[in-house]
Write a structure and sequence with these properties.
It is a single chain. The chain is mainly beta and about 120 residues long. The chain is about 0% helix and about 45% strand. The chain is built from no helices and eleven strands. Strands 2, 4, 5, 6, 9, 10 and 11 form a seven-stranded mixed beta sheet that branches. Strands 1-3-8-7 form a four-stranded antiparallel beta sheet, with no helix packed on it.
Length: about 120
C-alpha cells in the first residue's frame, strides 16, 4: 500500500490549489480515504474524507464550502480542491487510508497508511 501526495505550494489568500493523492497496491474505491493536515505546533486534524463503497464525503467545519474531495477511480487518485484559501489553512497535508473502518472518519487515529505529505503555504 502506497500513497503519494502532491500539489502543495505557495498561494496568496483567496487563491486555490488542488492536491492529489495517487494510490498504489490497492483499489481506493474499496477503502476509506482521508485528507489531514498538521500546522506547526498543532496536532494533526482531519480535513475531509470519503468512504470507499458508497462515496460518502465528510468535511471539517473550517473547510465546509471551500474544499471539495473527489475521486477518480480510473486513475486510482483522490483530489482535494481547495478554494478561498486562508492563512490558517497553512499546513502539511497528508492523505491516508484505513483498513479498520468502512465508513470514513475525520479522526486520524483510525487510519493505517499515510502518504508523505505536501506543504501548503497561504501567504501574501
Amino acid at each position: 500500500v502506497q500513497l503519494q501526495a502532491s500539489g502543495g505550494g505557495l498561494v496568496q489568500p483567496g487563491g486555490s490549489l488542488r492536491l492529489s493523492c495517487a494510490a498504489s497496491g490497492f483499489t481506493l474505491d474499496e477503502y476509506p480515504i482521508g485528507w489531514f493536515r498538521q500546522a506547526p505546533g498543532k496536532e494533526r486534524e482531519g480535513v475531509s474524507c470519503i468512504s470507499g463503497s458508497d462515496g460518502r464525503k465528510f468535511y471539517t467545519h473550517d473547510v465546509q464550502g471551500r474544499f471539495t474531495i473527489s475521486r477518480d477511480n480510473a486513475k486510482n487518485t483522490i483530489y482535494l480542491q481547495m478554494n478561498s484559501l486562508k492563512p490558517e489553512d497553512t499546513a502539511v497535508y497528508y492523505c491516508a487510508t484505513s483498513r479498520r473502518i468502512t465508513v470514513a472518519t475525520l479522526l486520524p487515529e483510525f487510519y493505517d497508511y499515510w502518504g508523505q505529505g505536501t506543504l501548503v503555504t497561504v501567504s501574501s
